[in-house]
Design brief:
single chain, about 400 residues, seven-stranded parallel β-sheet, about 40% helix, binds uridine-diphosphate-N-acetylglucosamine
Length: about 400
């Protein structure tokens, strides 16, 4: 009997949205007879509410490797991740690196792997906002140009990659791992009756998430958005679980007085409430009960589409057009008049009705692992460092 050794697969997670995406991938890889996962946490997000809570609630195994890099400027953060990740790659010699999403950790680890000629699988490939002022867009474009496997969540992903010269064979339309996690945990939220801060208040409310540099790093823009929320809050209380960047900037710009702190009653004179960042399950429970969600996050546009909840996106563009074409999302930018107009449409019963996009069925991670197993089973089926273009640079592994 020939006993094959499992191929070591580094799975990279760095920031909050990554944790949600790696959870189902880790679970499926654990079951694989051919592939052996090694979870690498870069430490880009390190606060308990931004990191540990997610590991606990999503039952993600403790990281095998923790690079502990923390926050810094883009260049310094990326460089720190690269230096620490290269050391681990050389020591442990994985045969494949799986990266998810579009954060600095995604880019940094892809660069290291590609230079060591180890193939990279990019989960959530091909999304494009066509706005290079977003750091995430730069991360997406570079990651996709170097990856050997491109797993896409929606048809636009394939179209964008083909336009950029990526080989069709490297592109796999598999669905959405973030939705795998959502579908699985929705059952838990229902059956375990997970509570959120507004539980049992018996009221309609709107949920807001805000953290994009374009919205919160500039005082005038941030204040304008708060103005819109104040206007909306005359009709419906508004709750903002704040990302650390958002709270820090609210303090720095002297905007904290425009928020109330939640003390269990929505009768405060100011009904825009700031909350602590929430863990995955309470946030899901809160989002599920919301009348509408206003957000500048990427993933939340997808989660609301799956849940059928009206989503108002506070950005000029979306890299997830399926949430607009098929789902409940409207993209309005950060202008006060447009934000308030979209919220009034929802309150007046004119919210968009959406459908769940194709293959968002909770089985994306399974499809990803099957595709990887198949590629590794084929002799020479994996081209290392060819960027999905078919150009072969050699077969050496470190
Ligand atoms: C990162 C991602 C963004 C993602 C977001 C989700 C990049 C370029 N951006 O943005 O795509 O949508 O995560 O949350 O990778 N901070 C803490 N505690 C933490 C983490 C961060 O206090 O655990 C503070 C730091 O002071 C830091 C700031 O938040 O300066 C921003 O963190 P950073 O990881 O640089 O980017 P995010 O804005 O979180």
């Amino acid at each position: 009997m020939i006993v094959r050794r499992r191929i070591k697969v580094f799975v990279v997670a760095g920031a909050r949205p990554n944790f949600v995406k790696v959870a189902p991938i880790m679970r499926e890889l654990e079951k694989s007879a051919a592939l052996k996962p090694v979870l690498v946490h870069t430490g880009q997000h390190y606060d308990a509410e931004m990191s540990r809570l997610f590991f606990d609630q999503l039952a993600i195994p403790a990281p095998d490797v923790d690079l502990g890099v923390g926050s810094a400027s883009h260049a310094v953060q990326t460089a720190h991740i690269m230096t620490a990740f290269e050391r681990e790659m050389l020591a442990r010699k994985p045969g494949l690196v799986v990266v998810v999403g579009d954060v600095n950790s995604t880019l940094a680890c892809t660069l290291v792997a590609a230079k060591l000629l180890v193939p990279v699988a990019h989960v959530e490939a091909g999304l494009r906002s066509f706005d290079r002022t977003m750091p995430e867009e730069i991360n997406r474009v570079v990651t996709d140009s170097l990856a050997s496997f491109h797993f896409v969540t929606e048809p636009s992903g394939r179209e964008n990659l083909i336009r950029e010269g990526i080989r069709g064979e490297s592109i796999h339309f598999v669905g959405n791992v973030m939705i795998d996690t959502l579908a699985q945990n929705l059952k838990r939220v229902r059956s375990e009756k997970v509570r959120h801060p507004l539980e049992g208040m018996g009221m309609d409310y709107a949920v807001v998430t805000l953290h994009r540099p374009t919205n919160v790093d500039d005082r005038e823009t941030f204040a304008g958005i708060i103005g819109a929320l104040e206007e909306i809050s005359r009709n419906i209380p508004v709750f903002l679980p704040a990302h650390p960047r958002t709270e820090k900037n609210a303090r720095r710009f002297g905007l904290m007085k425009r928020f109330s702190l939640w003390r269990g009653s929505a009768s405060a004179s100011h009904r825009v409430f700031m909350l602590e960042p929430l863990g995955y399950l309470p946030f899901l429970a809160m989002m599920r009960g919301a009348r509408m969600v206003l957000t500048d996050s990427g993933g939340i546009q997808e989660e609301t589409t799956f849940l059928g909840i009206p989503c108002i996106t506070l950005r000029e563009t979306t890299e997830r057009p399926v949430t607009v074409e098929v789902g409940t999302n409207v993209v309005v930018g950060s202008e006060r008049r447009k934000i308030v107009g979209a919220a009034m449409d929802v309150l007046d019963g004119r919210a968009k009705k959406g459908r769940v996009p194709e293959l968002w069925d909770g089985k994306a991670a399974r499809r990803i692992v099957e595709a990887l197993e198949k590629a590794f089973a084929r002799e020479g089926g994996v081209r290392r460092g060819d960027g999905g273009t078919g150009r072969r640079r050699g077969d050496a592994v470190p």
